[in-house]
Specification:
Blueprint (H helix, E strand, L loop, with lengths): L1 H8 L1 E4 L2 H7 L9 E5 H5 L13 H5 L27 H17 L8
Antiparallel strand pairs: 1-2
């Protein structure tokens, strides 16, 4: 029963270049998620969700985002909870930057 319901509801996926070209005038961005099958696809134009976090820009300043160059708001994980790992080089650079910032601010001990 659950499997049948899942097929009926469908699923979403990242917007393709072709979909973006077709939907950009409706406010879709290049990193949008769109209905790919089932109800999700059939009712795409009616199921638009906007995530808004009050004071997200101020909250973001208290996170690691500014050190990663992420500006203008807070990061929100998608519903899948899947995080694409950074390259090893990017991770090392992030750790180096964090250690450097702590040293500049006078911290002499750091836990990584």
């Amino acid at each position: 029963m659950l499997c049948a319901a899942a097929h009926l509801l469908g699923y979403v996926s990242a917007i393709s270049k072709e979909q973006y070209d077709e939907l950009k005038d409706k406010g879709y961005s290049l990193n949008a998620t769109v209905g790919a099958a089932g109800v999700e696809a059939a009712f795409e134009e009616y199921l638009i969700v906007t995530i808004w976090i009050p004071e997200g820009e101020q909250l973001a300043l208290q996170t690691f985002n500014p050190k990663l160059g992420i500006q203008g708001g807070i990061s929100v994980l998608g519903t899948t909870g899947i995080v694409k790992p950074m390259s090893e080089e990017a991770l090392l650079e992030t750790i180096r930057l964090e250690i450097h910032m702590k040293a500049v601010n006078g911290d002499r001990k750091s836990v990584v």
